[in-house]
Recover the amino acids of this structure.
DNA sequence: TTCCTTGCAAACGATTTGCATTGGA
DNA sequence: TCCAATGCAAATCGTTTGCAAGGAA
C-alpha cells in the first residue's frame, strides 16, 4: 500500500510536532512566535510544499511579506523547514523530513500542484540502492536524493 | 559499466548535433546565429548544466548578458535547451535530453558542481518502473522524472 | 531590562523587456 | 530586402536587509 499526503493524515500528531519545533527553536535561541506558528500550521495542513505568495495569501494579511520571508528564513535556519525551487525558480517551502518522513514529489504539469508521496518501504529501499550504486560508480558518496515525478494528476488527466 | 559525462565523450558527434539544432531552429523560424552557436558549444563541452553567469564568463564578453538571456530563452523555446533550478534558485541550463540522452544529476554539496550521470539501461528501466508504480498508485500518469543525487565528489571526499 | 521579533521601506540580484540599430538568409 | 537578432538601459519580480518600534522572558 502506498501512503501519500502524509502530513494531512498525521494532524492528530500535530501537537507533538509543535512541541518538537518549539524545542528546536529554543535550541537555536529563537522564540516560537505567532507568525512562526501560523506558518508551521499552514505547511502542516498543506498536501505539498508552498511558495511564499501562497502562504501570504493563506495567512490573509496576518503576516506581511517581509516578515513572512524572515520567518521562513529562521525556520529553515533551524532545520525545521526545507526549501526547494520549482521549474520557475520560485522557492517552495515544506516541513523538513525529520518531521514529515522522507518523501518525494509528484508534480502535475497541468495544474502545477505538487504533492508529497512516500513510497512503500521496499520501493524506497530499492531506490536508495540504485542511488548508491550510481553515485559510487561515479566516485561520489551519496548523502541524499530527490526524486521528482512529473505527470498529470487524476483531475487533469480526465480533462 | 556506467557512463557519465556523456556530452564530453560525444564531441565527435558535435557536427551532427549542430545540424539537428539548426534544423530545429529553422522549424520555429529562428536563425542559428553566432551567439546561439557559442552558447550551444559551451554547453556541449560542459560536463553538466551551467548558470547564465558561468556562460557569460566562459564567453568572455562575446555575448552581453541581456542577449545571453534572450539566446537561452529562444533555445529553450525551441526545445533545444532545458532549464532547471538549483538549490539557490538560480537557473541552470543544459542541452535537452533528445540531444544528450536521458540522464540524472550528481550534485556535490561540497563544491556545488553538478555532473550528468547516465545509469546503465537496466538500472534506468528499474527506476522507470518504480516511478510509474508510485505515480499510478497516486492517480497520476507519469510523463517524466528527475533524480538528483546529492553527495560529495571524489575530490571533496578526500579533503 | 535585554534581546528577539516585527513592519515598513529601500536595496538587491537574477531575469525580462522596450526600443532603436544591426545583421543574416 | 525584410524580418529576426542585438545591445543598451530601464523595468520586473522574488527575495533580502537597514532601521526604528514593539514584545516576550
Amino acid at each position: 500500500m502506498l501512503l501519500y499526503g502524509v502530513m494531512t493524515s498525521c494532524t492528530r500528531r500535530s501537537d507533538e510536532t509543535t512541541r518538537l519545533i518549539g524545542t528546536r527553536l529554543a535550541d537555536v535561541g529563537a522564540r516560537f512566535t505567532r507568525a512562526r506558528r501560523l506558518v508551521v500550521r499552514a505547511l502542516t495542513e498543506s498536501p505539498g510544499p508552498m511558495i511564499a505568495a501562497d502562504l501570504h495569501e493563506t495567512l490573509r494579511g496576518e503576516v506581511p511579506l517581509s516578515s513572512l520571508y524572515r520567518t521562513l528564513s529562521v525556520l529553515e535556519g533551524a532545520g525545521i523547514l526545507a526549501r526547494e525551487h520549482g521549474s520557475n525558480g520560485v522557492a517552495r517551502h515544506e516541513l523538513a523530513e525529520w518531521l514529515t518522513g522522507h518523501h518525494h514529489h509528484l508534480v502535475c504539469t497541468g495544474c502545477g500542484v505538487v504533492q508529497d508521496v512516500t513510497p512503500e518501504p521496499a520501493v524506497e529501499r530499492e531506490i536508495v540502492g540504485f542511488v548508491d550504486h550510481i553515485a559510487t560508480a561515479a566516485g561520489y558518496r551519496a548523502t541524499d536524493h530527490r526524486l521528482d515525478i512529473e505527470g498529470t494528476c487524476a483531475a487533469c488527466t480526465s480533462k
